[in-house]
Amino acid sequence: MNSVPLLDLKAQYATIREEVRAAVDRVLESQYFILGPEVEALEAEVAAYCHCRYGIGVSSGSDALLVALMAIDLQPGEEVITTPYTFFATAGAIVRLGGKPVFVDIDPHTYNLNPAALAAAVTPRTRAILPIHLYGQMADMDPVMAVAERHGLYVIEDAAQAIGAEYKGRRAGSIGHLGCFSFFPSKNLGGIGDGGMVTTNDPTLADKVRLLRGHGARPKYHHSVVGGNFRLDAIQAAVLRVKLPYLDGWTEARQRNADTYRRLFAESGLVAGERIVLPVDAGQGRHIYNQFVIRVEARDALIRHLKEQQIGTEVYYPLPMHQQVCFADWGLSAGTFPHSEAAAQETLALPIYPELNDAMLVQVVEGIARFYA
């Protein structure tokens, strides 16, 4: 039995090994490791790719969220509306600045913020809306922007999983006031360590993010604001510059794999029997499939079965933010956000990376079919 890992970065590296090594050597020969020309070039290339005027390289996707909130001067006690079904960094960045996450439940089909619940969550303390483009599909941004404009709020897109995703022809990170991206190795565009990017079309916000990422110093040793060390390493930028021209091809391969999964699951009869609920493409743009997440019966038993079959899976995310121990004093009990809680209990990510072949996809679907048989 051949194994099918959740992600195989070695397979990708094998196709670009010499280019990556040359890029790393270029940085080593330059001995210019922090910011510099490699980072500046990547910033311009990613900004153009995301249809934005500005890109500012930062140290991680988590720090992209943090510095974006700092750039809008989020104050202690001010509120940021987002969802509880997300990676911890989304809520964590708000709390680190003394802000208060105000959660609205997700759409149970797309797992993104439900815009119908947004207006009711706005209070006089609301400063921003932070929609998450989860699993590679953008949130429904038109109603989000409408609420923001009506109430004078900032919109910060958490696009960590969505580089190249589109909504009605517009790219992730280009619609809100700021966009936040992650280059964590498992992302569609992944580095060889941590890295991130903030995008914006606002020159004032771009300048503020640049200032904040270097401890608020301009010129050196003269600090006009308190920032942090959020700088992107040149070696990460150089590797990402190698990978960026391949990204659209990799995205197309992910989309083909998603189409193949849909066909195989339909042929298996599992979808008709409602044992499996496949990812929903909202049909409003380009889904880049950072993850292929299904909803299943008896998930934890299925995970054990697939592990025995040497098929990799992952649960994103097993515990919503309002149920995390560190946020227990918020008093948000189980049942407060039922769609987020159900997603946490029932969803499962399957392998979707570009280097998968049809035989591997068949192995995944047949492994699931054996479990339900």
Provide the descriptors you would attach to this structure in a database record:
373 residues; alpha/beta; Aspartate Aminotransferase, domain 2; Aspartate Aminotransferase, domain 1; 2 domains; 7-stranded mixed sheet; 3-stranded antiparallel sheet
Average pLDDT over all residues = 97
Stretches with pLDDT under 50, minimum 5 residues: none
Proportion of residues in β-strands = 5-15%
Q: How many helical elements?
A: 11
Largest sheet: 7 strands, mixed
CATH fold descriptor of the largest domain: Aspartate Aminotransferase, domain 2
The rounded Rg comes to 21 Å
CATH architecture of the largest domain: 3-Layer(aba) Sandwich
Global shape: globular
Beginning-to-end CA distance, first to last residue: 19 Å
CATH superfamily of the largest domain: Type I PLP-dependent aspartate aminotransferase-like (Major domain)
Summarize the amount of helix as a percent range: 25-40%
Structural class: alpha/beta
How many domain modules? Answer: 2
How many β-strands, per DSSP? 12
Q: Summary?
A:
With 373 residues, the protein is α/β, with parallel strands linked by helices.
What would you note in describing this structure?
- With 373 residues, this protein is of the alpha/beta class.
- The protein has 2 domains: 9-103 and 112-245, 3-Layer(aba) Sandwich (Aspartate Aminotransferase, domain 2); 246-372, Aspartate Aminotransferase, domain 1 (Alpha-Beta Complex), CATH 3.90.1150.10.
- Helices cover 38% and strands 13% of the residues.
- The chain is built from 11 helices and 12 strands.
- It has helices at 9-30, 37-49, 61-71, 88-96, 141-151, 203-213, 234-243, 247-268, 299-308, 338-346, 358-372, and strands spanning 54-58, 79-82, 100-103, 126-129, 154-158, 166-167, 170-171, 178-182, 196-200, 276-277, 292-296, 347-350.
- The strands form 3 sheets. It has a 7-stranded mixed β-sheet, sandwiched between helices.
- Strand 6 (166-167) and strand 7 (170-171) form a beta hairpin.
- The longest helix has 22 residues, at 9-30.
- The radius of gyration is 21 Å and the shape is globular.
- It starts with 8 loop residues before the first helix and ends with a helix.
